[in-house]
Amino acid sequence: MKNKMYLLICLLVLAVGCNSNYVPLKGTVVFSDDETPLTTGSVVFESGVVGASGALNERGEFTIGSMKADDGLAPGTYKVFIVGATKEIEDKSSGMKRSVPLIHSKYDNKETSGIVIEVKKGETNKFEIVVEKP
Questions:
Q1: In the chain, is it the N or the C terminus that has fewer CB atoms within a 10 Å radius of its CB?
Q2: pTM value?
């Protein structure tokens, strides 16, 4: 019975992953205080069933991919968060490098980011996400 349930779950995941109803999704992430782009990290969209992400580039732009780097997402409502938005700095007193956050810590969790985006079929799905510095 467990093997049959596992097989059913795998087939369901494959069916969702091969969805031809995905729509392209792009966007930018900028800081609230000066509108400069966030250039490090990845933007993650998660619905509880489906998740996808896209890396930020030097202009603060991202393209969301589910099964491929740019295939988009199925229409629906997604909680959005940002991971890896850090930079390495050298601690002058110890000479050691450490990672410091570039954005407020609330943005690294889907439950605390406060960002909810609806992806719609047949529309231009391009979003601007505005974040605060730590």
A1: N
A2: 0.81
